[in-house]
Structure formats: structure tokens, C-alpha cells
Design goal:
By secondary structure, this protein is mostly beta strands. It has one domain: Ubiquitin-like (UB roll) (Roll), CATH 3.10.20. It contains one helix and five strands; from the N terminus they run ββαβββ.
Length: about 80
């Protein structure tokens, strides 16, 4: 199935080949979870702060069990500090 992965801010450095403008379309196995998608990217766990699937927040404890569907869009942000 096909999904879209968007990596924001400093995470865009981890975008797989073929990605551009902070996004890449990926072909993944049916019933893949968020954790299944993230594992091969080697994203530092402490940088995967905010994860949204189709605009809905997915808590860290739910990411391994959150199965994806055709056409889902995953957005991931690192922790951001500012003042």
C-alpha cells in the first residue's frame, strides 16, 4: 500500500531517497504500523516527538499498535523550543 511520510525541521535530513520538500511517498506492507515505518529510517528516538496520522496525534505508547491504511499521511516533528 502507499502512504506519505513527512519529516519536519531537522528530521528532514532522514528522508529516504526519492523524497523532496520534506515528504516522500512510500510503498509499505499491508497492516504496517507507525513503528514499522520508522524503524528502517534510524530516526533518533528522542527526536521523534510529535507524530500525526492524517492530522490526528498518536501517542508514543500507541505507535507500535497503530496500523496504517492506504493513503495515510504521517507527519513527524522533533521537539521544538523557542521563546
Amino acid at each position: 500500500m502507499k502512504i506519505t511520510l513527512k519529516l519536519f525541521a531537522s528530521l528532514s535530513d532522514y528522508l529516504p531517497p526519492g523524497g523532496r520538500d520534506n515528504r516522500v511517498d512510500l510503498e509499505v506492507a499491508d497492516q504496517a504500523s507507525i513503528s514499522d515505518i520508522l524503524a528502517p529510517l534510524n530516526l533518533p528516538e528522542q527526536l521523534v516527538h510529535l507524530v500525526l496520522v492524517n492530522g490526528t496525534y498518536v501517542a508514543p505508547a500507541a505507535r507500535a499498535g497503530r496500523l496504517l491504511s492506504e493513503g495515510d499521511q504521517i507527519g513527524i516533528w522533533p521537539p521544538i523550543a523557542g521563546g
